[in-house]
Amino acid sequence: MSSLPELPVDWEPTRATLHAYAKAVGVLPRAFAVFHPKWWHISLKVRPDGLVTEPMPLPDGGTAFVRMDLRTHRAIVESSHGDRVEFPLDAGTTATDLGDALVAAVAELGLAGEVDRAKYDDDERRVYDATAAAAYFDLVQVVDTVFTRHRNTLEGVVGPIQLWPHGFDLAFEWFGTRVETYEEDGETGEYPSQLNLGFYPAGDAYFYSNPWPFERDRLVGRALPAPARWHTEGWEGTILPYDEIRADPDATDTLLAFARAVHEIAAPTLMA
Q1: Of 261, 268, 201, the residue nearest 14 (C-alpha)
Q2: pLDDT tens digit string along 216-247?
Q3: I need a labelling partner for 62 at 20 to 30 A (CA). Which of 48, 215, 229, 248 fits?
């Protein structure tokens, strides 16, 4: 058990910068990694040395990947052959700068093809505070460990813990056996029920765990470990504010108890 690493009070400008950079990194696995039908190939994974893409197969049989190293403040393109090129993460580098540099770097390795540059087209000169970026990385490593402790106890189909470039939240999904029919753009399809567990670091940062479909009558009012609570305005699910547990010496245990409680309450509603 332990408290959670602290994000600086003025963390938000650097978060916005990292979010913009993550979008620039994320276009590469979207274009070149092995496709996954749930789009798991586009996300970044928390590793001891940074936020890392899925491996991208090279024409010669090797692989390449990109790593956002928030300790040395570099975006690094590496290959299984030992190739390595680095680009600075700092206030002077826009998301467009970084994205174009990364696209050119992987092209040198043989990964040439269509890349959706619109996803990172952002010429704003943003704030980048190295101390804030490192503090965030300290935090997501702890959160990833707690999520892993919970994830490894679950049965059934479970997704990887991933940092999504588009939302900059760290999350994973557990899938129930219940299947829901939906209609979109005149087409009908089916989608499995699911329960996610995530951390959203923007603004008033918070942890969440949201069942889908959300059966309000069977869920809202069920006891959650304090200070977690049900959230039904704007989006439906559960919320555990980061600031309300961060300094608690039992914060990681509280987060784990929150994850387990929501799963215990919601899982029966997501089974066929």
Answers
A1: 201
A2: 999 999 999 999 999 999 999 999 999 999 99
A3: 48
